[in-house]
Design brief:
This protein is α+β, with helices and mostly antiparallel strands. The protein is 16% helix and 40% strand. It folds into three domains: 9-65, no CATH class; 74-145, Beta-lactamase Inhibitory Protein, Chain:B, domain 1 (2-Layer Sandwich), CATH 3.30.1450.10; 153-224, Beta-lactamase Inhibitory Protein, Chain:B, domain 1, CATH 3.30.1450.
Length: 227
């Protein structure tokens, strides 16, 4: 957590006590890109990994996985649906009452290119994970896994009938539900939404259909498990 964007390799080594494992390197001089890995220490974090990326000898990004057995910060589906792309980070934090777990940072803090990814767990289940990506302090993308526990079903015949260019309303009218929005990014004509449905009928209980919308229109569809 103490590592700051802009730090040198020497500063990192002084803090941590080792230079880490260099897993990749490219370029020279000001374009030299080095990725360094560390593993977590302490109770419950033996499998944690921290990745630090240097360009031209300075930290430009950092990310981690596994340090928090329970991610700080809870969220429910109502809060998730309330949060809109374009909100500033402070507004999101005010609604949720905390920062969550900052799993990655890139760029210089305070600039329009500074990227932060924050994660929260579901208030009803620790297996539900929500991620928010902020660029320049503005929410650019949100995604959820397991938070929306609604039942959204689709048949193979319905899936086959879906056409590229359809609106969300046309899809909802055909299927009978709006589906589970697992990720969303952008606004207006660049609004990007991914919707999931589960299969219904004999032998397709585990089938999944994924529909992708850009600017409100279907641009792609895929399925797995339909026979």
């Amino acid at each position: 957590t103490a590592i700051q964007i802009g730090w040198t390799r020497a500063q990192l080594t002084q803090l941590v006590g080792s230079s880490g494992s260099v897993v990749s390197e490219a370029g020279t001089g000001s374009t030299n890109i080095v990725t360094v890995y560390y593993t977590g220490i302490g109770t419950g974090v033996s499998n944690a990994i921290a990745a630090i990326i240097f360009i031209g000898g300075a930290v430009v990004a950092k990310s981690e996985a596994g340090f928090d057995a329970a991610i700080a910060g809870k969220i429910n589906i109502q809060q998730y649906n309330t949060i809109q792309i374009g909100w500033n980070q402070s507004k999101v934090l005010q609604l949720l009452g905390g920062n969550g777990n900052i799993v990655s940072q890139a760029g210089k803090p305070g600039t329009s290119s500074y990227v932060v990814t924050a994660q929260y767990t579901g208030s009803q289940s620790s297996f539900a994970i929500v991620s928010f990506v902020f660029i320049g302090g503005i929410l650019n993308r949100k995604s959820q896994i397991g938070l929306d526990t609604g039942i959204y079903t689709i048949t193979k015949q319905q899936y086959t009938a879906i056409e590229i260019g359809w609106t969300r309303a046309q899809l909802t009218q055909l299927v009978g539900s709006s589906g589970s929005v697992v990720s969303e990014a952008g606004t207006g004509s660049t609004n990007f939404i991914t919707v999931e449905y589960t299969g219904t009928g004999a032998g397709v209980a585990k089938a999944i259909a994924v529909i992708v919308f850009i600017g409100g229109a279907v641009v792609a569809k895929s399925e797995a498990g339909f026979k």
